[in-house]
Design goal:
The protein has 576 residues and is an alpha+beta fold. 39% of the residues lie in helices and 15% in strands. The strands form 6 sheets. Strands 3, 4, 5, 6, 7, 8 and 9 form a 7-stranded mixed beta sheet that branches. Strands 10-12-11 form a 3-stranded antiparallel beta sheet. A 3-stranded mixed beta sheet has the order 15-16-17. Strand 16 (370-374) and strand 17 (380-385) form a beta hairpin. Helix 2 (57-67) packs across helix 3 (73-89), helix 14 packs across helix 17 (516-522) and helix 16 packs antiparallel against helix 18 (528-546). The longest helix has 40 residues, at 445-484. The protein is flat.
Length: 576
């Protein structure tokens, strides 16, 4: 059946254009050959059954969990997003792009709804019919920016940007790529991420692409971890099926090394048989394919669903580079367990199949209260302590599994720090896991107390400093009024009275400190200019502290700066 590529009506009163989708054929030639010979686009996922009855993303999530019970929830969420697009979002008339092993691409038009072919071989059962327009398009026929959009490692991904639908339609009709009129002349921002995706895809088995955060930022022409930079890079990495481990927002500096890894690639039969389950994942919470908002946005191209971006921009802003974009603003904050040093510390461990004597040896040598117990795959299964070892008499041949407690409290590195408070309070500690299930570290009450002291100490110091400064300056203003009959402040009189009698912000404090009449009224013997400059430094520290934008090293120096300023006030104002 021939279907013209044209504009069409999309649900209700929303009018939308044809959409373009790239559906990869997997790691072998079979799906590619069947796709072209039988006019199909094929999703893969060999262990998943018929999805015809899945009416919601939640239904599909249940099917995936049943098929892959050991997979990480983050990966299942990503797969759910891809399969839901294939099952329910892609519509007849949409463009389908199939990258071919030979290096060319095929472009077709979707003609049918989702089908499950129970009689087909595993990996060839989830299909939709396609009319292929061209099956021999050289990649060189696509301009560099459009080629870059094909760099995603996801099996099912939408080609949304750079006017892709119009340009692919022209190419499918045998015409040349008309190009994107809005593309920058040098295409640096477009070619860089695609080249990164190529390097990740070509990395030898067991190896990952490693680079400094500074170099990662430079691919997008950013020089610091601003909110704008993080949001842009995250969006592009999501489009490419990539993630950064650890996230660039969780490392101490932009010279720190990170890994770039694939995420959400569809499982092939050989991957399952080899025992490989879940790739390393990005640690940051995000909307992406695992959010209902994103799925709903896919259903309705006219909708405008905007997700919050929760980041932890350690050292973001002025401290990382000599210049910062004027429009770059730090993102909102989520303080995760991964920020605790102990949550990323190497722990001594024992396996379930180790002799119990090995646990006794490690507990004694390291003066530990307990040890994490791992299974043969390296995943946390429980813990063992002196209490379990000494509970009953066991033979010399006893194994760790004979004494271990197989119920254990754990939390992931990317979860909020406050979420572990109850478990630590009730049980003394909680083990910390990477998103792939591997052990990362441990958090105890001491760790939390130390961290919260670090986080809260600047707030307490600033609060006391502001209290003393506010009282001193309001008193000085009253003396100025008694001498001159007015406050002497320029501007609206009503606003001036409110400012003097009800409250001021930190910028107001500094303005007043620079006025000679107010300074004389304080009676302070400090050098006026240097004290005002010190208070301005405190103002900047206060703004950064309120948004957790300081790294640990910056926080230590900030506390010292505030303490010096506070001590100076205490010498002239002993009573708070």
């Amino acid at each position: 059946m021939h279907v013209d590529i044209q504009l069409r009506q999309v649900r209700g009163d929303n009018v939308g254009a044809v959409r373009a989708w790239m559906v990869r054929a997997g790691s072998d030639d079979k799906r590619e050959a069947v796709s072209l010979s039988e006019n199909l686009t094929i999703a893969g996922w060999p262990e998943v059954g018929d999805l015809s009855g899945c009416q919601t993303p939640g239904d599909l999530k249940a099917e995936l969990a049943k098929a892959y019970p050991r997979e990480n929830p983050r990966v299942l969420g990503n797969w759910r997003g891809q399969l839901w697009r294939f099952r329910a979002v892609m519509s007849p008339g949409d463009l389908i792009v199939l990258p071919l092993k030979a290096g060319d691409i095929a472009i077709g038009c979707l003609t049918g709804d989702y089908q499950f072919r129970a009689e087909a071989a595993p990996g060839l059962r989830h299909v939709r019919t396609v009319t292929w327009k061209r099956t021999d398009v050289p990649r060189s026929d696509l301009r560099a920016d459009l080629r870059a959009t094909l760099g995603s490692l996801l099996t099912v991904s939408e080609l949304r940007r750079l006017d892709a639908v119009k340009r692919l339609t022209e190419i499918a009709a045998g015409n040349s790529d008309p190009g994107n009129p809005d593309a920058p002349a040098d295409l640096r921002l477009l070619g860089g991420p695609a080249e990164l995706a190529d390097k990740v895809a070509q990395a030898p088995a067991g190896e990952t692409v490693r680079l400094a955060v500074r170099d990662l930022l430079s691919i997008w022409d950013f020089v610091s971890r601003s909110g704008k930079a993080i949001a842009t890079i995250r969006r592009d990495l999501d489009d490419l099926g990539l993630a950064v481990v650890p996230p660039v927002t969780e490392v101490p500096s932009i010279d720190h090394m990170v890994r770039v890894v694939p995420i959400g690639m569809a499982p092939e039969a050989e991957r399952k048989s080899s025992g490989e389950e879940t790739a390393d994942l990005e640690l940051e919470p995000e909307a992406g394919d695992d959010s209902e908002a994103d799925l709903l946005a896919d259903e309705d191209p006219g909708s405008s669903v905007v997700a919050d971006v929760n980041l932890i921009p350690d050292g973001a802003g002025e401290g990382e580079s000599g210049e910062e974009e004027e429009s770059a603003r730090p993102a909102s904050v989520l303080v995760t367990v991964g920020r605790l040093p102990s949550a990323r510390s190497e722990l001594k461990t024992v396996r379930l199949t180790d002799p119990l004597s090995r646990a006794v040896e490690l507990l004694s040598e390291n003066a530990y209260d307990q040890l994490p117990v791992l299974d043969d795959d390296g995943h946390l299964r429980g813990s063992i302590s002196w209490r379990e070892i000494g509970a009953t008499n066991r033979p010399a041949t006893a194994l760790v599994e004979d004494a271990a407690v197989l119920k254990v409290r754990s939390i992931r590195t990317d979860e909020p720090m406050v979420d572990c408070l109850a478990d630590v309070a009730d049980h003394g500690c909680v083990f910390v896991l990477n998103p792939d299930g591997s052990l990362s570290g441990i958090v105890t009450g001491h760790d939390l107390a130390h961290r919260f002291e670090q986080e809260l100490r600047p707030y307490a110091l600033i609060q006391e400093l502001e209290l003393r400064l506010r009282r001193a300056l309001k008193k000085a203003l009253m003396q100025v009024k008694e001498i001159h009959g007015e406050y002497g402040l320029p501007g609206d009189p009503a606003k001036i009275v409110k400012l003097a009698e009800q409250g001021m912000n930190f910028a107001d404090y500094i303005t007043l400190l620079k006025r000679d009449d107010v300074w004389r009224a304080t009676g302070w013997q400090f050098p006026q200019q240097s004290f005002a400059e010190r208070m301005d430094r405190v103002r900047k520290i206060r703004n950064e502290t309120m948004h957790f934008h300081t790294s640990d090293d910056d926080r230590i120096s900030a506390v010292k700066e505030i303490q010096v300023a506070l001590q100076m006030l205490k010498t002239v104002q002993p009573q708070a």
